[in-house]
Task: inverse folding
């Protein structure tokens, strides 16, 4: 019979280390969190071989006495739960587990001098074996050195990646912690090179403008681009407070790795929070693109359980609904305030496109999202320079679009100069989109503003306008419908028919009336009046696809928004149509009056602006 026995302390610690210390970056995270808990204002880090041979963290925090040092490396010894109360955790650490775990799998040495103490002490732990404290030299604070991580657990050692990769993880961890603590200076080097050097910003609490301090830190980490294109977020509900910065929807990334979320100063990667961000941006960004955000949620300690994940990167909220509502509401509000501001990255990319090209045109546009929703991709192939006009032209029914057929196929530039009535709006601050001067390639409106010019993508702009009007009408109790003279029968797969028919009431609220017509077809009787004459069959097919794709977890409201988007895309048949000056100006004025008109609902800009100064630079006048 196998013998049942208590495991030796060292083995227990090694097992705990398996959870807490996954790789050098996780050991580093624990050490830096300890320094922050100790009130450090400056934290200097050295990593060798990505942290495998050395992790050194020096801080100027409160330090420890000799007996504190011995206790610190003992399991379950902590100074951070003075009232034994796990529901009121205000520090990053609380388990008294990190140092003994690290000590069990490495050669650990801690040198520390307690504030006001007259000497420093050093303690060493090697593979779990402890030697007594000895006097050492250190002027203040604490220096922790972890050498040969995992030397005592060769299995773990094998799983380490290349030093560069491990170093990358470490840098990322420090960046996250540094975002939450702009009042602390951080440096990180590999012994010869400095990888991060962040000066302390004035204290958030006492500084005159906490947003500026934090934004400066975010800019230092995420780059100028974020700093220039971020909206401040500030909202409070029932003692929960959300602050931080949210990137404009036109500044988007391929993954959500650039979404930084913090709960009571603790970096987390929490599904609930990430989902809320996704929900808030849903209207503005295509599903395969991700906005950049840095959001800080503060809430009473007893409302959140931080003790649910060994590396403390997930949390559990008492009131998840409140958290989600707060985030979605705050972000939507910030985005609404931003009105039709498009990101500067768009302008810069456009400027790049204007520069003299060498050889054939390379496509210097901001690339459209490659995997955007099927409906978008169909009409907007990924080569806007040559494809958009044709695609839109192909999409136009021949009898649609007013003045004379065939215009969208013009191969010669079809610019027209307005010589008619004077248009004073270009200097009117209420009309930032200026006065329309010309339409080119049957889809782009050129307008003159007070200090530059604006190019509007009339299809994208119109799509946004239809979308916003649709949402508005929906909120006001339903979208006006228009009966088709001849009901249209659309043949579909059976599953698609089922999906559409089961959603018929929702679709009706959106102005689309359809019913089943045998197993493999639906009949469309009415369409949203806003869409004008539309290709009902195309619309219904796209909707069926949308509904199939729609994440089952999406709320009804979010799904409706999706459907609105598809409908708006179909309603935007104005592209490829020549507009006269009055029509162009009317579109500009509508855009100014419409929230979120700076980007279409796929996150693409509806217009770009070139400042006169940029134009002058293009011509070498500056
Ligand atoms: N850099 C430091 N400066 C001052 N005291 C420190 C420092 N690092 C650790 N300590 C002391 O050592 C104790 C043990 O640290 P350890 O990281 O093992 O546990 P913890 O931070 O309390 O909890 P957790 O395991 O959740 O991190 C801390 O509670 C703290 O009192
Ligand atoms: Mg700790």
Result:
């Amino acid at each position: 019979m196998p013998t049942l026995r208590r495991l030796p302390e060292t083995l227990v610690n090694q097992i705990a280390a398996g959870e807490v210390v996954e790789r050098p970056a996780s050991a580093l995270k624990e050490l830096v969190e300890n320094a922050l808990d100790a009130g450090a204002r400056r934290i200097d880090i050295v990593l060798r071989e990505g942290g495998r041979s050395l992790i050194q963290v020096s801080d100027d925090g409160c330090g420890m006495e000799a007996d504190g040092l011995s206790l610190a490396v003992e399991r379950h010894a902590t100074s951070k739960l003075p009232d034994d109360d796990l529901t009121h955790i205000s520090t990053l650490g609380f388990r008294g587990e990190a140092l003994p775990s690290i000590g069990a799998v490495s050669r650990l040495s801690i040198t520390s001098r307690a504030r006001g103490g007259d000497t420093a002490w050093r303690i060493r732990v090697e593979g779990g074996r402890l030697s007594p404290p000895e006097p050492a030299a250190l002027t203040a604070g604490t220096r922790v050195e972890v050498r040969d991580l995992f030397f005592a657990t060769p299995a773990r050692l094998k799983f380490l990646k290349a030093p560069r990769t491990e170093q990358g993880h470490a840098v990322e961890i420090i960046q996250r912690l540094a975002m939450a603590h702009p009042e602390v200076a951080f440096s990180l080097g590999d012994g010869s090179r400095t990888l991060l050097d962040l000066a302390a910003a004035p204290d958030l609490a006492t500084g005159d403008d906490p947003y500026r301090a934090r934004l400066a830190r975010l800019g230092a980490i995420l780059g100028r681009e974020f700093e220039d294109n971020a909206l401040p977020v500030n909202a409070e509900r029932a003692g929960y407070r959300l602050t931080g910065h949210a990137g404009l929807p036109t500044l988007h990334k391929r993954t959500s790795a650039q979404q930084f979320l913090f709960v009571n100063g603790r970096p987390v990667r929490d599904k609930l929070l990430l989902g809320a961000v996704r929900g808030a941006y849903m209207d503005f960004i295509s599903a395969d693109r991700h906005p950049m955000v840095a959001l800080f949620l503060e809430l009473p300690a007893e409302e959140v359980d931080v003790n649910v994940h060994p590396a403390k990167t997930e949390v559990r909220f008492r009131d998840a609904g409140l958290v989600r509502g707060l985030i979605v509401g705050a972000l939507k509000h910030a985005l609404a305030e931003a009105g039709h501001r498009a990101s500067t990255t768009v302008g810069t990319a456009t400027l790049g496109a204007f520069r003299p090209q060498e050889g054939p045109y390379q496509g210097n546009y901001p690339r459209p999202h490659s995997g955007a929703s099927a409906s978008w991709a169909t009409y907007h192939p990924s080569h806007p320079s040559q494809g958009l006009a044709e695609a839109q032209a192909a999409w136009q029914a021949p009898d649609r679009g007013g003045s004379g057929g065939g215009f969208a196929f013009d191969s010669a530039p079809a610019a027209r100069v307005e010589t008619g009535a004077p248009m004073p709006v270009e200097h009117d601050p209420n009309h930032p989109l200026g006065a329309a001067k010309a339409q080119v390639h049957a889809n782009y409106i050129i307008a003159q503003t007070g200090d530059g010019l604006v190019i509007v993508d009339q299809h994208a702009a119109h799509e946004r306008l239809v979308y916003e009007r649709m949402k508005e009408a929906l909120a006001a109790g339903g979208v006006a419908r228009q009966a088709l003279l001849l009901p249209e029968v659309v043949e579909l797969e059976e599953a698609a028919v089922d999906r559409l028919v089961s959603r018929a009431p929702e679709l009706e609220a959106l102005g689309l009336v359809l019913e089943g017509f045998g197993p493999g077809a639906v009949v469309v009787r009415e369409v949203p009046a806003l869409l004008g004459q539309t290709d009902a069959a195309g619309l219904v097919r796209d909707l069926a696809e949308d509904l199939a794709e729609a994440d089952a977890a999406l709320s009804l409201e979010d799904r409706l928004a999706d459907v609105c988007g598809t409908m708006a895309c179909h309603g935007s048949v104005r592209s490829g149509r020549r507009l006269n000056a009055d029509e162009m100006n009317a579109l500009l004025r509508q855009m100014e009056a419409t929230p979120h008109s700076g980007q279409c609902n796929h996150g693409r800009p509806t217009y770009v602006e070139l400042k006169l100064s940029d134009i002058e630079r293009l011509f070498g006048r500056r």
In short: The radius of gyration is 30 Å. The first strand starts at residue 42 and ends at 48. The chain has a mean pLDDT of 79. Residues 268 and 313 are 4 Å apart (CA to CA).
